[in-house]
Design brief:
CATH topology: Rossmann fold
Mean pLDDT: 91
Shape: globular
Order of helices and strands: EHEHEHHEHEEHHH
Number of domains: 1
Distance between the termini: 38 Å
CATH class: Alpha Beta
Largest sheet: 6 strands, mixed
Strand content: 5-15%
Radius of gyration: 18 Å
Structural class: alpha/beta
Strand order of the largest sheet: 3-2-1-4-6-5
Number of strands: 6
CATH architecture: 3-Layer(aba) Sandwich
């Protein structure tokens, strides 16, 4: 493995939103894999609190229990809080920040030294464009990210895998999927970028491959860091 994300004895917290990507990641990490040393898994679902009566969390908890997973179901009001009147301009930022903070707290409480998120190849490409278009910086998610001075690592085992393959696996395995009830999910910046790339692919089918490869061919000498000021 390029990044050596998982070592013997690791306790890996797997963030499980209930979507296809996170369910596929959890399923894959729970299968017998060649060249991966023994490690343990803690599945963690942060319920954003959009609809307490929807039943999605109960379906997920039942499936995790039937699969003999160690898991934590964490109720929260992060969703409504992030979409409250004082924060309507950027609900996704606050929601992500609060969920990440809670994940860190749970990881520390349960002695996890790795946190696995289900971000795949397409997510990494989209994040590059989101940060470029809206954050005014050239950056994206990385497969193995040390935090807190290396005490904890955020890992993305699906980093090299295309979204279509991840979702195909989830469907073939019959994994349960929880509906995304976030009111911003249909108008988010990520969805805009995803649709933009889909349109560009009609003219250039290799556009995402080109962007992916470009991240490995950064010519720093041709990027004037001070151009345009702060």
């Amino acid at each position: 493995m390029d990044y050596g994300m998982i070592s013997a004895g690791d306790k890996v917290l797997v963030g499980v939103s209930g979507g296809m990507d996170s369910m596929a990641l959890l399923s894959l990490l729970n299968t017998s894999m060649i060249h991966v040393p023994p490690f343990s898994i803690l599945a963690v679902h942060i319920d954003p609190g959009f609809d307490a009566n929807h039943g999605g969390a109960e379906i997920l908890a039942r499936w995790l229990k039937e699969g003999s997973y160690d898991f934590v179901m964490d109720d929260s009001d992060i969703g409504p809080l992030s979409h409250s009147p004082y924060n309507r301009k950027n609900p996704c930022f606050l929601c992500s920040r609060l969920r990440r903070k809670r994940i860190f707290e749970i990881a520390e409480h349960h002695g996890c030294n790795k946190i696995a998120f289900a971000h795949h190849r397409d997510d990494i490409i989209e994040t590059l464009l989101i940060n470029l278009f809206y954050g005014r910086e050239i950056s994206t998610m990385i497969p193995d990210q040390p935090v807190f001075g290396g005490k904890l690592h955020i890992i993305r085992p699906l980093a090299y895998i295309r979204e279509e393959l991840v979702k195909k696996y989830a469907v073939e395995q019959g994994l349960p999927v929880i509906e995304n009830l976030c009111p911003t999910s249909l108008v988010s910046r990520r969805l805009y970028i995803k649709r933009l790339l889909a349109e560009l692919e009609k003219e250039n089918p290799e556009i995402k491959d080109n962007i992916w490869k470009a991240m490995g061919h950064v010519k720093v000498d041709y990027i004037p860091a001070k151009l345009g000021g702060k």
